[in-house]
Structures are given as structure tokens and as C-alpha cells.
Amino acid sequence: MESLQVIKQRFGIIGNDVHLNRAIEKAIRVAPTDISVLVTGESGVGKESIPKIIHHLSHRKHAKYIAVNCGAIPEGTIDSELFGHEKGSFTGATAARSGYFEVADGGTIFLDEVGELPLTTQVRLLRVLENGEFIKVGSSQVQKTNVRIVAATNLKMHEAISKGKFREDLYYRLSTIEINLPPLRERREDIHLLFRKFASDFAQKYKMPTVRLTDDAVKILENYGFPGNIRQLRNIAEQISVVEENRVISTQSLMQYLPSKGTNLPSVIKGENSKSDFNSEREIMYKILFDMRNDINDLKKLTLDLMKGDNVDKLQEENKKLIQKIYKEEKDTLDFKEENSVEVVRFNDKYNDENDYEFAETIDADESLSIQDKEIELIKKSLERNNGKRKLAAKELGISERTLYRKIKQYDL
Ligand SMILES: Nc1ncnc2c1ncn2[C@@H]1O[C@H](COP(=O)(O)OP(=O)(O)OP(=O)(O)O)[C@@H](O)[C@H]1O
């Protein structure tokens, strides 16, 4: 069995906390078996490295390892993504498609944010776990797969079960072994270690001297709560590495990067003769830009649905609110059948596959970079303000939690 230190080095895991070590040791021990593992812990604690360790130390290491963000896949397509679909099983299914459970046969699937799975998908997953059987969407033929499942969640699963959002039987099936990763505030002795590692990585990346904290600043950092855990610490290290001219970071400089405790507002926003008016004005501008982009993305999605779908009336009815929001000054309804008939022909070739549909929801490569930067800034701010709580941040930003989750992953926030 490979030693703990070797594994940590191989998977880039920093820290010496006893709970962290215990979690890694558990992963090493359970790896050669086919037992299902549930990795638990708050967002940003480093759950993703555990399934990788398990896969690479198992007899499955030469087969596929697929990591799926269950929270990032739209509900309507998740069954097809996981289990595949037959040609013609739904509008837009122009060809049969293999799902992850078929592709990963012999390997490992990591189901991140498993608590986000819709109940209908949970039933399918339970069946795979019990006897390796699954059925493609639109098929009646039972298929077999041999996949090891490692799942992760940052939810309190017992709460999700009591609210009827997660099946109890599935929970017990998934969590034969549970590996819990501690939040950063419970492993204070690792904080400075991690900061130094990130500071050195960013110094290399941005070709600048490495930043260093004064002794007092170290104490401040070690006593900070880190609601966003290691992901937040990494972001702070990056911001400091890029922004601070003086490479020795004092308490005062550091404090600017730590959202203030009481209000959870970033300290840079407030202050005596601060440019708070300018800041709030700027924030409003960003918010408008952000809303506009969301409207455009919603509209793109609706347009694609219209291009692909044949039940235009139903789509129009379902999206009445959105249409009215975007075409405020227009009449109550718009005749999409007429307005888009030409486009259907033109766009059909371009968007004839569901991956394009997904792409329509993401950011275009040629979109203005500065708007993207502002979006990131706004998301970060909102997460800070809401103490890392995605539900509240999504509400504040006016987007769904699922979209916010996707953006956090996309920008590695
Ligand atoms: N022990 C560690 N050493 C070095 N980097 C780490 C460690 N733990 C986490 N990280 C880094 O922190 C970031 C967040 O980790 P990760 O994505 O695994 O968190 P998570 O618990 O899966 O979060 P979420 O529940 O939001 O998906 C990543 O950039 C990861 O590389």
C-alpha cells in the first residue's frame, strides 16, 4: 500500500490535519474494493480528490474515470446524460447516444453534488447500484454495466431525506462507506501551509515574486472563518498575489481581502471617504449587465427550443413571462411561428445536436472579456455577502441555483 505522504504528493493534497489524513487513509483502504463511497463535507473542502485516489488505487485504474456534476446538468437532460438515449426518444434526439454509465463500464463514476439529482433519476441510480442494470431513455431494453460509484455532497443528507428530496434507500446504498472532509476552520494549522503553497503557485503563474504574510497577518488568516473553505483561501491568495505591490503582506493589507465578519460585506466596499457611491453605482451597472446577459441566455435557450420543437404554442405559453420581460414594449404575445420560420431552416443545421443546446447556455467565446470579469466579480461578491450560501446568492443575482453552481465550477470560484 502506498504511503499517505506519497498519495498526498501524487494528488497535490496539502495539509497534515489528523481528520484529513484519516479521510485519505480511508480512501486508500477502501480503493481496492468495489464498495460505494459517499464523500461529505462543505463546499470547497477538496472532496474531488477522494474519488480520484479511489479510482487510481483500484483495479479499475486502466478503465475510464468520469466525474459528473449532477448539479450542473439541466434536469431535463440528466437521465439522457447518465444513461443515454435512443434516436427519436425526444425532440432533438437525432441520434442514439451512450450515457456515462455505459461509457464508464469497468471504471469509476464520480457523482458530485449527488443530492441535486431529481427523484426520477434517483430511482434509476438505485437500480444501477443494486444490480448494475439501466435502461436508456426511450428504450425498453435492459442493459448491464459494471461501474463503481463514488458520490459527493455538501448537503445535510438527513435533512434532504426528511424533506422528501432524497431517497433514503439510495442514501444508504451510496454511503456504505462515508468519508468526511473537515472544513478549513477546523484545520487551522493547515491554513498557512496552504496559503504558502498557493502563493508560490501564483507567483510562478504570474511571474512575480512570492507574497509573504507578516506574523500578525498569519494569525489573522488562521482565525478567519473561511465559509468558502480551501477554494476561498486559494482565491484570496490569487488576489493578493496579483494586486499587492508590496510582497510582504501586513494585517491591514490582508484584511481588505477577508469579507468582514458582521455584515459579510467585503471591506473594500465600505470606508470613510470611500468611493462608496461610485462603487454602488458601478455595482448597479454590473448588475444590469449581468441581468442583460441572463436575459440573452434565456432568450437563446428559448430560441433553440423553438427551433427544435414542434409545439410552438406550448413553448410560447410556458415562456410567456420571459417573452414579456424581454420584449417589454411589445404586445402581450409575439407570433414566433411567423417570426422564426426562416430561422428554423437556417439554425437547424447548426444546432442539430444536444451539445449545442448546452453550449447555448454557456458563455460565448467571443463575448466581451470584461463583462465576464464583472460577472465573476459579482458572483464572488454575492457569495461573500451571503456567507458562501449559494441559494441566497442565486436569489440575489436573479439566477437559478443550478446556473450559479455551473458558473462557480466554470470559473473555479
Ligand atoms: N488539501 C488541498 N490541497 C491543495 N489544494 C486543495 C486541497 N483541497 C482542496 N484544494 C483546492 O481547492 C479547490 C476546491 O476543491 P474541490 O473542488 O475539490 O472542493 P469540493 O469540496 O469538491 O467543493 P464543491 O462541493 O463545491 O464541489 C480546488 O481548486 C482544489 O484543488
Describe the structure.
- One of its GO terms (biological process) is regulation of DNA-templated transcription.
- Residues 13-242 form the Sigma-54 factor interaction domain.
- This is Transcriptional regulator.
- The protein has a five-stranded parallel beta sheet with strand order 2-5-8-1-9, with helices on one face. The protein has a two-stranded antiparallel ribbon with strand order 3-4. A two-stranded antiparallel sheet has the order 6-7.
- The radius of gyration is 24 Å and the shape is globular.
- The chain is 52% helix and 9% strand.
- The chain has helices at residues 4-10, 18-30, 49-56, 78-83, 100-103, 119-131, 157-162, 168-174, 191-205, 215-222, 229-243, 251-255, 276-308, 312-318, 320-326, 336-350, 354-361, 369-385, 390-397, 401-411, and strands spanning 37-40, 65-69, 84-85, 97-98, 108-112, 133-135, 142-144, 148-153, 177-180, 212-213, 248-249.
- The longest helix is centred in the C-terminal third of the chain and has 33 residues, at 276-308.
- The two termini are 34 Å apart.
- It folds into three domains: 4-182, Rossmann fold (3-Layer(aba) Sandwich); 189-255, Helicase, Ruva Protein, domain 3 (Orthogonal Bundle); 278-411, no CATH class.
**CATH topology assignment of the largest domain:** Rossmann fold
Approximate strand percentage: 5-15%
Based on secondary structure, the structural category is: alpha/beta
Q: Portion of residues in helices?
A: 40-55%
Q: What would you say the CATH architecture of the largest domain is? A: 3-Layer(aba) Sandwich
State the assembly state of the protein chains: single chain
How many separate helices?
20
Count every beta strand, where a strand is a DSSP E run of 2 or more residues: 11
Shape: globular
Unreliable parts: 261-281, 329-369
**Roughly what is the average pLDDT, rounded to an integer?**
80
Strand order of the largest sheet: 2-5-8-1-9
Ligands present: adenosine-5'-triphosphate
Question: Quick one: CATH superfamily of the largest domain?
Answer: P-loop containing nucleotide triphosphate hydrolases
Q: Radius of gyration in whole Å, from Cα?
A: 24 Å
Instruction: Profile the largest sheet.
Output: 5 strands, parallel
Number of domains: 3
Kindly report how far apart the N and C termini lie.
34 Å
CATH class of the largest domain: Alpha Beta
